[in-house]
Amino acid sequence: MWLLLALLCFGLSVGVHAIVSRARPRANRVVTYGIVAIVAFLVLAWLVFAQYGPDVRAWAALCLYALAAELYVFLFTMISSSITARLLIILRKRDLQLYEIDSAFPTSGMVDDRMRNLLANGFIRAEGSSTYTLAPKGRLLVTGFRPLRSFFRRKQPT
Length: 158
Known about the structure:
There is one protein chain. The protein folds into 2 domains: about 1-80; about 85-150, Winged helix-like DNA-binding domain superfamily/Winged helix DNA-binding domain (Arc Repressor Mutant, subunit A). With about 160 residues, it is mainly alpha-helical. It has helices spanning about 1-25, 30-50, 55-80, 85-95, 100-105, 110-120, 135-150, and strands at about 95, 125, 130-135. Strand 2 (about 125) and strand 3 form a beta hairpin. The protein is elongated, with a radius of gyration of 20 Å. Helix 1 packs antiparallel against helix 2 (about 30-50) and helix 2 (about 30-50) packs antiparallel against helix 3 (about 55-80).
């Protein structure tokens, strides 16, 4: 029962966050989820301590909820603000010249580091001296990002 309560409270927090994010699209999503998550955490704490007292099951439910909430924040902030994710998504749609990549991102040094990492890890490949394209490993990663971006209602980069 403690597991079900933790999962239900987490699901409820994600659902309420989705509703609030769509109702107030300009609101800070991290702060919004923080408020929703704290309220859901307090409800969960009240429920599990009322049912189990200070038993290990109550603490397990709270820890599981906290872990799930933190993972959720990590995922939606990573998908919504990652330059690497944005770069991979753009490269999935079309090949880019190096000057286009430099103009698409504000700090080229940051982009250079990411480009080296993406090349070294096989997510992109260089074609010639100034054109990059998405490698099969990168396509697989972008395919995993698509449902998350859609779920969090993030606009696809062009």
